[in-house]
């Protein structure tokens, strides 16, 4: 019976342990077996070399594959990062493409384009969203344990922390696009909207929840995945105009209203004087329009078209849209008094069409004495703050 030799007698001609069974073909046979012939030894050596070469080829191939995947990933990230630069500097100046923007983005790409346009200056990640969502859920749990359902409306008044506005979200969600039903309790998007708004109030307790936010978040949720909707929502509300309104920065809001009135008088002088005769200031109708980015005031499909161009042109288009609405209904408004104008602009006709509105918006010229919106607003920012106090009595009350 064959008895293997002791370890010291084995593999005297090699200086390493074979890494696999393929390396065994290089070893000499045990002393009690016939030795390999020269031809057999050479053949085994050749087979081993071929196996090693194949292994190296596979390894090199895998390494190239990994490098290619990484290159593609970096390329994709670079493309996303530079997408807006290309659109702004190369694509948008092209008249035909600008016309496509004006006609409205295809719903299938709308969310992606909005995300790119809004950007992510806050560097929010999906992981960060999950952290603030968890914090919101903890607070909801603590509120439910310490407050009865009948006390919900008093929570924000009784708790100093702005995160207490979490409970107010529940009340407002049911008022968001009520005709769609999808955001109502039990609807497919109710919990999603609740989560995005709750996470935001924990992310920005200095702002908290403000009525109107639910409409903006809802529009984003309809066009983006949950985490992406939160990222776009937080960055959108961090823009100067939205931040001024949602933080109720009276000084900044007055300057926006003053800039709006400059172009109001320029484009619609008769209606401007009519409003002035009734001391009807922009805050009476503009606040609601700006708070919801027209998503509450206009039909949803039309509001999305406004968002398309707003994402391209920035805050200026929000005020240009407001002037477009006033132009569309100028003849009707000229026949109304203060109360009826306020009621009309608070609840616009439901039969408003995108063709008529955008035709009126296109007729609005955002230039005054060779100054564009940004220049007019910048000059107002330099004005003495005391001089702005009389622009809007309703805001001071």
Q: What structural class do helix, strand and pairing data support?
A: mainly alpha
Top CATH class of the largest domain: Mainly Alpha
Biggest sheet character: 2 strands, antiparallel
| Residues in helices, as a percent range | 55-70%
CATH architecture of the largest domain: Orthogonal Bundle
Gyration radius over CA: 34 Å
How many discrete structural domains?
Answer: 3
State the end-to-end distance. 108 Å
Q: What percent of residues are in strands?
A: under 5%
Question: Helix segment count?
Answer: 20
- The CATH topology name of the largest domain reads Cyclin A, domain 1
Average of the residue pLDDT scores: 81
How many strand units? 2
Instruction: Spell the H/E element sequence.
Output: HHHHHHHHHHHHHHHHHHEEHH
Domain Rab-GAP TBC: 104-314
GO molecular function, one term: GTPase activator activity
Keywords: Coiled coil
Organism: Meleagris gallopavo (Wild turkey)
